[in-house]
Amino acid sequence: MSGKLSTVLQHTTADSDQRWLSSKTEHEDFALDDSNLDQRWHLLFRSVYDGEEHGRFMEKLEARIRNHDREIEKMCNFHYQGFVDSITELLKVRGEAQKLKNQVTDTNRKLQNEGKELIIAMEELKQCRLQQRNISATVDKLTLCLPVLEMYSKLREQMKSKRHYPALKTLEHLEHTYLPQVSHYRFCKIMVDNIPKLREEIKEVSMSDLKDFLESIRKHSDKIGETAMKQAQQQRNLDNIVSQHPRISGGKKSKKEVCASSDLEVKNTSPMSEQDSGILDVEDEDEDEEVPGAQDLVDFSPVYRCLHIYSVLVSNSLETGSYTGLWVKEGDGVLLLPSMLLEGGDGYRKYFNQIVGFFVVEDHILHTTQGLVNRAYIDELWEMALSKTIAALRTHSSYCSDPSLVLDLKNLIVLFADTLQGYGFPVNQLFDMLLEIQDQYSETLLKKWSGVFRNILDSDNYSPIPVTNEEVYKKIVGQFPFQDAELEKQPFPKKFPFSEFVPKVYNQIKEFIYACLKFSEDLHLSSTEVDDMIRKSTNLLLTRTLSNCLQNVIKRKNVGLTELVQIIINTTHLEKSCKFLEEFITNITNVLPETVHTTKLYGTTTFKDARHAAEEEIYTNLNQKIDQFLQLADYDWMAMEPGSKASDYLVDLIGFLRSTFAVFTHLPGKVAQTACMSACKHLSTSLMQLLLEAEVRQLTLGALQQFNLDVEECEQFARSGPVPGFQGDTLQLAFIDLRQLLDLFIQWDWSTYLADYGQPTCKYLRVNPTTALILLEKMRDTSRKNNVFAQFRKNERDKQKLIDTVAKQLRSLINSHHS
């Protein structure tokens, strides 16, 4: 079978070789022809198209094609039989090949089945040997790596429990002892790469704890400051007691002793102590119990821990700049002064507590650490805080209008200054600022007492104080220094000469002095400075506040003469009481008034000015009342005959003046006399103006005689002595101008007037020729108009000529006087 197959294959191969050789020859010829194909085609197409043999060319081409077809057919017929034989042989070989394949497949299956168990056993042996080798190598490597992993696990546990300083020590041991032994492992490289990150994490966490500590200090600094200020208050109270009772010794330690004696230890082994900042370890204490030290309220372990960690990490202590930078930020938060915080005393107290707590902590850190902060930094921080505090207090205290709030603020500032002074901080600027606030305090007191004085003056009845029994009498005398032997002898009921506002005003002045004294307490001022401050403030109260209130009452439109008289009496008694106010200030300041630089009280001047203003107002009111009565005057200037009595309005006016001057009995004599003389002069002047006013163009002798009756009524009033103290006819001289003028016209004594004019002994010395001419002109016009037929009567003609002659002479006097 195989022999036949090989024979067939050999024949097939020989035929194929022969055909390949013949085709090769043809192809080579074609390739040869093809090499010149372009040129031959070019020549052919050119010759065909250039000549006229196109049809012949197509015939030759067809013949050529047919020739090739025959060649192809011959070749196919020649090889067809060999191809058929080859296919026949291949079909025979396919059957034999399939049998061979089946035999090989069966043999392979049998072989595989026989070797499968052996292969499984060999694979199991191989895996066992590999596992033994791996286990042995793993045990060796784990023995080497296990301490490293244990140390790293310990490190992570310490980091998790926030025991950062032990973790830092473990990290150092791991890095320098264990990791070098296993440095070729990848996890070791990861650990080595992670070590700087762990150090930075420890550094950041410790700094974060420090920040949390500082933030907690800022939040709870008011409690720390409150405790420190309570200590300062207790120490000051103790000092006061000791100064009052020198025999008592001992007592509490000073703040610096307490600070030095408090030794706070850092417990690094306790995770809870590290985790809890422990800002407030003590609850609020009762007032009666002893106040713990301010440092005892704070756990400073985060600061010491961070300082220790930084000393290990950077081989140096915690940088002062890092700490101060954080602390300054917290300090800025403490020093911020919200406007809402200062609306009341509690806001000021909380603000001062925060600042005190801030610097108490800072002072403790300065004395318990080395290199973290220094005195220069503390001083710089205090200067910054002091300047901001003073600026804020100046701004916000200017809004305080309540003196009690300003006084509370002063007490807080004093306690604040004393507390920080106990820790060694300079506080002179605070006391200088208190002197500025003292001026503002005085202004608020003046505003408050201005309202008090207004209420007293508005509610007063301006009547003498009635007294019904001895108890009330002693009470008033105890309130106001008044002594009058005559009043004491009088039986009850009786009256003080002054009204109720005198003792009330006097007591309020004393209250004002007490209020000024309260502000000077604990300011470390000398007695002379306190005395000077009180006297200056009291002078402002008297000369500005009380004086303005009195002037406003005096100038009020509805104030009456009775009230003005009582004000004069009251201010007279208050003026006399000024020496007792001097003694009162001397008693509370222990500074004698004879001291060279002692300021004198200006109360006497104040009450004198008020009294003079009241007197002027009395004179003005009297004149206004007189003018009101004169407006009722209704003279008949053309009356031929006078009436039988004075005018009604004038009788009423004189009655009013009599009743008014009767009230002036308690006034000083000169005041009553001046008022009476002023009223009479004003009445005389007003009557003269009434007689000479331009609207009165004509008047008769009868009208003049009626006017004379009114003047006589006024003179009668002056002679009656409405106010005692006038000598002789002094009061009548107020009407002398009117009297001489009326006598001149009624008696028609022109010859005497003209003859004696200008002489000191002239009977009508007070009659002005201009006034006489005006009045004469009015009578001459009346004579002309009312006596139409006067020219036919010899007497009338003579009178008219006399009037004209007198008028000419008066004009001549006037002209000569002017020249």
From TrEMBL:
Keywords annotated in UniProt: Coiled coil, Exocytosis, Transport
One biological process term in Gene Ontology: Golgi to plasma membrane transport
Coiled coil start-end: 58-128
Domain Exocyst complex component EXOC6/Sec15 N-terminal: 60-229
Region of interest (Disordered), residue spans: 234-256
Domain Exocyst complex subunit EXOC6/Sec15 C-terminal residues, every copy: 429-778
GO cellular component: exocyst; plasma membrane
Keyword Transport: yes
Gene3D superfamilies: Dsl1p vesicle tethering complex, Tip20p subunit, domain D, Exocyst complex subunit Sec15 C-terminal domain, N-terminal subdomain
Residue ranges with Polar residues bias: 234-243
Pfam families (alphabetical): EXOC6_Sec15_N (PF20651), Sec15_C (PF04091)
InterPro entries: EXOC6/Sec15, EXOC6/Sec15_C, EXOC6/Sec15_C_dom1, EXOC6_Sec15_N, EXOC6PINT-1/Sec15/Tip20_C_dom2
Function: Component of the exocyst complex involved in the docking of exocytic vesicles with fusion sites on the plasma membrane.
Family classification: Belongs to the SEC15 family.
Protein name, per record: Exocyst complex component
Natural source organism: Strix occidentalis caurina (northern spotted owl)
